[in-house]
Amino acid sequence: MGLFDFARNMGKKLFGGDDDPAEKIKEHIEEDNPGIDGLEVTYESGKVIIAGEATSADALEKAVLMAGNIEGVEAVDTSSVTAPVQTVAVEFYTIQKGDTLSGIAKKFYGKAGDYPKIFEANREVIKDPDLIYPGQVIRIPKDA
User: Fold this and answer.
1) Using CA atoms, how far apart are residues 28 and 33, in angstroms rounded to an integer?
2) CA 144, CA 142: separation in Å to the nearest integer?
3) Over the stretch 43-102, which tens digit does the pLDDT of each residue have?
4) Exposure winner among 25, 47, 78, 83, fewest CB in 10 A?
5) Domain ranges in the chain?
């Protein structure tokens, strides 16, 4: 997949002080592991490098979003991950101030009531559909 950019100063506060960022990020991904076998994480000055074998393209995308939506992360490199090719069209969307999942669903699907499709596609990143924040990056499956 390559290199993904994120807003470094936004996201979930996961590490600080004497914490090992790579270890904290790895633990975070493994909590809701979307399907990355042999997961290895490296952190270098705001850049996360993920290695391992993804069971699906969706799993890799979710791991990228889990790592990228952390405060202090500005890029995620997936060049060390093997994954099947994505077979569903997916668009990445950065949440803006004032956005709601229903508003995003209306924009992409034409119906605000389709917000559960977005929530389900991002369950590892969005724990509560009412708690999203500007700068957060999510995936929007086009075939949902």
Assistant:
1) 8
2) 6
3) 999 999 999 999 999 999 999 999 999 999 999 999 999 999 888 899 999 999 999 999
4) 47
5) 3-82, 90-141
Sign for the pseudo-dihedral over CA of 74, 100, 126, 132: positive
Q: Does domain 3-82 have CATH number 3.40.50?
A: no
- The candidate with the shortest Cα–Cα distance to 122, out of 36, 56, 61, is 61
48 is written with which tokens? 């996360």
What is the three-state SS of the chain?
Answer: CCEEECCCCCCECCCCCCCCHHHHHHHHHHHCCCCEEEEEEEEECCEEEEEEEECCHHHHHHHHHHHHCECCCCEEEEEEEECCCCCCCEEEEECCCCCCHHHHHHHHHCCHHHHHHHHHHCCCCCCCCCCCCCCCEEEEECCC
